[in-house]
Amino acid sequence: MEYNTQTPKLKIPEYGRNIQKMVDYALSLENREERNRAVQTIIQVMGNLNPSLKENRDYKHKLWDHLYIMSDFKLDVDAPFDPPSIEELQTRPSKVPYPQSKIRFQHYGKIAEQLIQKAIQMPDGEQKTEFVRHIANHMKISYFSWNKDAVNDQIILEALKEISDGQLELPSDTVLTEVKEPVYRPSQQQKKRRSKGGHKR
Question: Where does the pLDDT of residue 162 fall: very low under 50, low under 70, confident under 90, or very high at 90 and above?
Answer without folding.
Answer: very high
